[in-house]
Amino acid sequence: MNETKKRGNANLPALILLAVLLMFWQAAAMGIDAAYILPSPTQILVRLWELRGPLFTAHLPATMSVVAIGLSISIVLGLGLAVLMDISEIAEKALYPLIIASQTIPTTALAPLFVLWFGYGIWSKVLVTVLITFFPITITVFDGFKSVKTEMAELLFTFGASKRQIFFKLKIPAVLPCFFSAIKMAVPMSIIGAAIGEWLGAQSGLGYFSRRMMTQLDGAGVFAPILLLSVVAMFFTELVAILEKRLIHWRND
Hints:
Keywords: Cell membrane, Membrane, Transmembrane, Transmembrane helix, Transport. InterPro entries: MetI-like, MetI-like_sf. It is a multi-pass membrane protein. Belongs to the binding-protein-dependent transport system permease family. It is found in: Cell membrane. The chain is an all-alpha fold. The chain has a single domain, classed as MetI-like fold (Orthogonal Bundle), CATH 1.10.3720.10. The protein is 85% helix and 0% strand. The mean pLDDT is 85.
């Protein structure tokens, strides 16, 4: 009960700021009085309710499928690259520049190529999601490995611990906070990646639906799936934060 109350008090400033911004948005939209340019928050909520059928039964599941597959691949790929660069200096020197370079290419330039190569199916969107999300996981976890104090590793080594034991008993627990920080970044980025892929080429999904509403000059219809994406991203990020607190209990002591 006290924990819930504490979290509520911590979120109070953010809720107040959000309410103020929404009031300004509502006032600005009423002043412009052109819903196709700037719909008000109330108009977006009404439109979201009107479109709840196709959004929740068809397009949201399509987007979540892309997010689930893309994020899963990114976690495996990111962790694999981070571990490989940690155990091999040659791999670090070879892979690190390429990983950085992969983020210098605009995603909007690659997404149409993915559609050209893989068509309008799910895999073109999954590749966009992986391209965006594997980077923070790889770099954050790798930096976590590097932050482990060498003195502690040397101490365990003098006590007879093997490299395998040092890795699992010292490095893995030490890097867990970095891993969860990376996941909390990757979750909203995976949703953004899926939406970008759907916006540029898809037959279903919230990004596709938003683009379709734009062609109809339906401003509130454009914002409705975006609002839904934001709520979903916040929900899953909060789930990751709760899981982090349960698994890394020593961090909260």
